[in-house]
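Entry 12.
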Amino acid sequence: MIEKIDDVKGAPIALQDYLLTSTSNNISALVYGNRYPFDHPRRRFLDSLLSDLFRAIRAGSLVEFVPPFLLEVVSKLPSTRQTAIVSKLWDQQIKEHERTLDEHVNRDFIDGYLKKINESKADPNSNFKHNYLLGNLLSFFIAGSNTVAVTLQWHVLNLADKPDTVQSRIRREIDQVAGRERPPAWEDRNKMPYTMACIWEMYRWKTVSPLGVPRSAGEDTFFDNYYIPRGTTISPNVWAVHNDPTLWKEPSKFDPARFLREDGSLIQPKPEFLIPFSIGKRMCPGENLASVEIFLYLTSLVQKYRIIPEGDKIHGLDSIDIPLVELNKHKVRFVHR
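Predicted 3D structure (tokens):
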């Protein structure tokens, strides 16, 4: 991605295509063991599908509220077809991995998961199942590519909007900890409290998945006097938690200091009501990977470049929510330090 940014020599760019291709390649390598060139047709096709699927999940699925007699109509909607196409592609990958599985070699995540399925076949309560594998792949790609890419877009626009405050303070931490030559490492986060506070605050301020990743009730259950039948889709209202004024002072304001102690250190543990990856046993399995990616991308960009807006200012950044199509219209310039 850095090479692509350098190629434009400081000209204004919309970063989303660069980010999504780079982050989805990381997930492809982890899950499939494959990377694709920037302009590879399969890479472009998958990125397009995942972007559309992410938008559908982000908005919440209207399919859940459609009466059964209209489901045939719903099956023809673009988002439904895209989900089916992505599932088919992943199913093909899984079958190919099953055909070539070597018990002595773990090529990627799918290999490791398939071995766990084989090991636990005799256990009726095992959580390692074929359909769960498909769900985990969805979580990895959504959290590790689309969510990371959109979150980083927000960070880049915010840095361009606040070059003399947020951006300069993050850069000072990077220079003090990693210098200007050594690439930042994940271990550096423990010495960069302000940078981590900015990452946490962006999770809260611009909740990328306001209704989280939908889950399904595994059995009939009651919760708070509500009957929830088996198979019911559950969507946690993450946005409401992140914007609750009883939990956060001035929730509409970007304020990393809310995660810092008076001495400048990062508060620990992370507040329990900061839940960008949902909560509970079925919280997004891509959380750790996404956290590493966001930290490394953000610090690498700030270490190498001054990030400035195309014009005088980034307009509309403080609005409660900006549609992704509008977010993608904003351009910034990356100028070498």
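Annotation: The beta strands are 215-216, 221-223, 226-228, 233-234, 305-309, 332-336. Residues 52 and 79 are 7 Å apart (CA to CA).
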